[in-house]
Each structure stands twice: as structure tokens, then as C-alpha cells.
TrEMBL record:
Keywords: Lyase. Gene3D superfamilies: 2-enoyl-CoA Hydratase, Chain A, domain 1 (3.90.226.10), Lyase 2-enoyl-coa Hydratase, Chain A, domain 2 (1.10.12.10). It comes from Streptomyces mauvecolor. Residues 243-252 have a biased composition (Basic and acidic residues). Residues 253-263 have a biased composition (Basic residues). Residues 242-263 are annotated as: Disordered. Belongs to the enoyl-CoA hydratase/isomerase family. This is Enoyl-CoA hydratase/isomerase family protein. It catalyses: a (3S)-3-hydroxyacyl-CoA = a (2E)-enoyl-CoA + H2O; a 4-saturated-(3S)-3-hydroxyacyl-CoA = a (3E)-enoyl-CoA + H2O.
Length: 263
């Protein structure tokens, strides 16, 4: 795959789509070309009626090395409003994965640094190679963190730990990231994508509306018990009216795997 086409898209028969960064010689940076391909890909996924889950991964030694530093350096000396508008568009394009209605899984096959880490954190679930390096060394480059890293990292590891990682720019291994809660599990590199696909397949096999509503509820953040009850009193009755609910109950009675259709 050439640098001119750095994103591979695989639509699997069960509704799982795999997005793979394929510019390994440069450690999969977020170039203008890749950013535009990503924008189009996520927009297409948003409109895909049969989508069940998305897996994001990379090729080579890196998951994603973050923003292309050469392109970022080209903005030096530009007017502040113009730079702000460009970076805001960049952030929102990449973080659009966060707002997909279906579950998303980051298979962090290798290093995830800066905006690359933010992208992984924007996914619902994360699995990383044990020896991968993860971190947000913005301050070591003279930069303030971007792409909502301050919020996403704090949500994953807690504010005290996020402070230490962001203020020092320290990188951690995949195994350390798992111990912090930054990723859900650390695995040998060759097992990361299969594990992520296994999780995606399990979610794809569940009832689509129930999964989407569950993700929507979780995306509201840490709710109080009363807030959760209010949401669930709206969402659960909707699912009880579906054919999938009837199929789920019938499959349980017959002790067989359910066959959900999304109806």
C-alpha cells in the first residue's frame, strides 16, 4: 500500500468494519492524505445501515504516531485564528469515531503517541501490544495537548494519573497502560488484532438496537442512580418491543445462539 493510500478498509460479512493505517515506514502519521481518507471513511460508516462494530488498527511497529510533525511545523508563524480553525477541524475529523452509534475497538498493535493515543482513547474499547509505547509527550515538543487528550486520558486513568502523564510527557508500555486502565488488556503483539476482532464479533452478534442504546447510555458519562434510572426507563422499554427481544428470549429457552436481525 503506497503512502498515497494509507488507509485500508475491510467490511466483514458480520457487520464489523476494520480500518487499518498502512504507512508503516513512517509509523502511520496523521497526514493530510490520511486525515481526508479518515473523514470520508467515518462519514460512510455513519451512513451504513448494517454496521455492527468498528475495529481500528495499524501496520508495522506503530498503531499511530499522531499528527505529522512536518505538517504541524508548517503552521508556525501563521495567524492564530487560522491555525485554531485548522487544528479544530483536524481534531473533530479524527474524533468523529467517538460519535459513531456502534461500538469501536482500538487494536493498538504498536506505539500510540500524542494524537495517536487520543484516537485510541476515543474508541470504546482498547487492546494493546505488551511492548507498545503509549503516551502524550506534547509538552516535550513545546505543545499543549490537543485532540481532547486532557479529557480522554483523564476519563481512562483518572485525573491524578493523567496529570503525571501529561505534565511529564512520560511514555508507558502496553503492559503498564493495562495496569493503569488506559487499555483493557495487554497482549503479545500478534494476539492484539485477533483479540480485538473477537470482541467486535461478540458485539456484532448481539442485538443491534440494544447495543447502540447501551453505548448511548454509557456515552452520557458517570450518571447518578436517578439519572441512570431515567435513561433506562426510556431505553429498555424500546427494546422490549423488538423482534430481537422475542428472539433472544426464545433462543434462551431453546438453549441455542440467538439470530438477531436488528428488527
Amino acid at each position: 500500500m503506497s503512502e498515497q493510500d494509507p488507509l485500508r478498509i475491510e467490511h466483514r460479512p458480520n457487520g464489523v468494519t476494520v480500518l487499518t493505517f498502512d504507512n508503516p515506514d513512517r509509523r502511520n502519521p496523521m497526514t493530510r492524505r490520511l486525515t481526508e481518507q479518515w473523514r470520508r471513511a467515518v462519514r460512510s460508516l455513519r451512513e451504513a445501515p448494517d454496521l455492527r462494530a468498528v475495529v481500528v488498527t495499524g501496520t508495522g511497529p506503530a498503531f499511530c504516531s499522531g499528527a505529522d510533525l512536518n505538517e504541524l511545523a508548517d503552521r508556525h508563524g501563521q495567524d492564530l485564528p487560522g491555525t485554531r480553525a485548522q487544528l479544530s477541524a483536524f481534531y473533530r475529523t479524527w474524533l468523529s469515531i467517538h460519535d459513531l452509534a456502534v461500538p469501536t475497538v482500538a487494536a493498538v498493535n504498536g506505539h500510540a503517541v500524542g494524537a495517536g493515543l487520543a484516537l485510541a482513547l476515543a474508541c470504546d474499547l482498547r487492546y494493546a501490544a505488551e511492548e507498545a509505547k503509549l503516551g502524550a509527550p506534547f509538552v516535550q515538543l513545546g505543545l499543549h495537548p490537543g485532540m481532547a487528550t486532557t479529557a480522554l486520558l483523564s476519563e481512562a486513568v483518572g485525573l491524578p494519573c493523567a496529570r503525571e502523564l501529561l505534565l511529564t510527557g512520560r511514555l508507558v508500555s502496553g503492559a503498564q497502560a493495562a495496569s493503569m486502565g488506559m487499555v483493557h488488556e495487554a497482549l503479545p503483539a500478534g494476539q492484539v488484532l485477533p483479540a480485538a476482532l473477537d470482541v467486535a464479533d461478540r458485539m456484532a452478534a448481539a442485538a443491534p438496537l440494544a447495543v447502540r442504546l447501551t453505548k448511548s447510555g454509557l456515552s452520557q458519562g458517570q450518571l447518578t442512580v436517578e439519572q441512570a434510572l431515567s435513561w433506562e426507563a426510556l431505553a429498555q422499554p424500546v427494546t422490549t418491543t423488538t423482534d430481537d427481544f422475542r428472539e433472544g428470549v426464545q433462543a434462551r429457552r431453546e438453549r441455542r445462539p440467538p439470530r438477531f436481525t436488528g428488527a
